[in-house]
Amino acid sequence: MVRAKPADRYAALSYVWGVAPRRAAPGAAQLLGANLDAFQQSLPDADIPRTLLDAIWLAKKLGVRHLWVDRLCIAQDDAESRADHVQHMAYVFANAYLTIVAAHGDADTGLVVLDPRRPPQTRAARPAGRDHDDLVQASRWSTRSWTLQEHLYSRRCVFLFEDTVTWECHCELWQGTATGAVQAARGKRHECAHRLSVAPLGFQHAPWPDLDEYARLVMDYSTRRLTLVDDTLPAFSGITHVLSHVFAGGFIYGMPLMFLDIALLWRPQATIRRRALSQQPYLPSWSWMGWWFDGIPVDLILWRASADYVEDARPAGRGQAARRFQPTHSFRIKPTVEWHLTNRAQTIPVASVGLQYRDLRSRRNSGMALPPGWSRSGSHFRHDSDESTVFKYPVPVEEPPEEADEAVARPNEQALPGPLLSFRTTAGFFEVDYAISMVLREKPNPPVAVGNIWSRAGRWVGELRAHDGWLGVQTSNYDGDEKLEFIAISTAMERRGSYVLPREKFEENMDGDEIVDIVNVLWIERIAGVAYRRGIGHILQKAWEAEAQDEVDILLG
To answer: In this structure, are strands 380-383 and 310-312 parallel, antiparallel, or unpaired?
Structure first.
């Protein structure tokens, strides 16, 4: 082991740890404060897992002198050092010359496709049609939470599957044998014919807050697994640390603070379970990160429909254009709540400012001054940082850091007070009955219950999606009939269709302009003075204003 120098060229290893190692077990070598000096003299080959040894051999074969492996390069018993490395993990992989992806097995499996001693008959024939994307999707590696950011920020990756080796970079995709992969990786350098524009900080992110892209990352991460539940936030923090350079205010528990009103509108597609950390602060019920989604991505269609500020954007990578959400009708959210983060000892306001310039798209505001860096051409807007993207209206854009300050301190979500949201809003109790169970085809996950919401006069006024198959309260907080408590978190206007109401109900309640005004609500349950999210619903605004007139102070945990 050697200490890194800025000019060092190195490869990084992305792999599945497997079962957490016991320090005295064979193959369980990991860097600790006690063995740092010894590891700098020599590594105990007998105790290094097979995959790591094979990666060391491969790096040498590729002519890369240094290899970065988390297990051997981060002191596992130094909490402060580990937290710092984890937060800056994106930089580790982005600065690597190459990422070696052990896409088959775990730390003890080895890179079996490189083993010349492996009998040919043990190699399973690759099914027809199994190209690179299919192989990645089917791999255990792609199901692990940590590997999302490792893949996202790598400039070049060589994937080693059980029987196949593939190469992936920003302009090339190659698939073949192990020998061919080594030759390709060591081949002559040439200018890429499909090179993408330089992204900020060297990463393929827009220089403005792209909520649609972030939604895709969250959906991907929500399906992945962790060996240790306490790693839920750290395994995603490399992504939020990088994106905090363009998302004003940063993130808290995976929620972008500048779009907090929108971010609260996440929905489950199947039964979800609470993630219970071993120590405080616990993950809050109001964040998608506070729940296990068990392989089914969190439903973020309302994030993507609300992020309507982009007219036309150049894709950040192959296939990205098709992945950008194309709205079929309007979902226009209106913030109504002033949010505060608190841990009871400290409280700070949340600047949910992502939509503050939306009214500039109106013709009557065409003479108003624009935010710095923005220009207008007719009904469209552009920002100096990205001339290729056309916007419907401006959004707050952070000043890019100077090159020397790329790792400058940004809002650290672990340093913000939480996990409670404090706010004042309107609340009401409504009758709810079962409507349908939401079931995903070909998925064994238990369904979520969808309920009808009724007014006191017995009129249908909205719909609720629970977090599981149960539409009742789980405590004895309430007396009388089984009414559920709802709190308003925002309002919205839908036109010519709905993302949240059944089609027939939308058409029954729309006005002459095909518009329905709704209130976005959370079903809550109170325990010891703290409210917890149990589901999300949408109630006709006129019905809400008629029956939910009480203003309440909420601590949402």
So the answer is: unpaired
Amino acid making up residue 138? A
pLDDT digits (tens, 9 = 90+) for 15-60: 999 876 554 455 578 889 888 888 888 888 878 999 999 999 999 9
Residues in the chain: 557
Residue carrying the six token digits 């310039």: 357
Radius of gyration of the chain (CA): 26
pLDDT of 476 reads: 46
Give the pair of three-digit tokens for residue 242. 């990088």
Q: What is the mean pLDDT of residues 185-210?
A: 57
Helix, strand, coil % (nearest 5) of the chain? 25, 25, 50
CA distance 381 to 548: 39
The stretch 418-433 carries a mean pLDDT of: 97
Residues 314 and 412: their CA atoms lie apart, in Å, by: 30
**Cβ–Cβ < 8 Å for 269, 299:** yes
In 185-299, beta strands by DSSP E: 251-252, 255-256, 273-274, 291-292
For residue 266, CA distances in Å to 442, 443, 454, 548 come to: 23, 20, 23, 23
Burial of 181 (0-12, 13-18, 19+ CB in 10 A): buried
CB half-sphere exposure, 481, CA atoms < 13 A: 7
Q: Residue 138 phi/psi, 5° resolution?
A: -85, -5
Contact of 65 with 9, CB cutoff 8 Å: yes
Task: Answer yes or no: pTM beyond 0.85.
Answer: yes
**CA-based nearest residue to 396, from 414, 370, 421, 417:** 370
d(CA 546, CA 436): 27
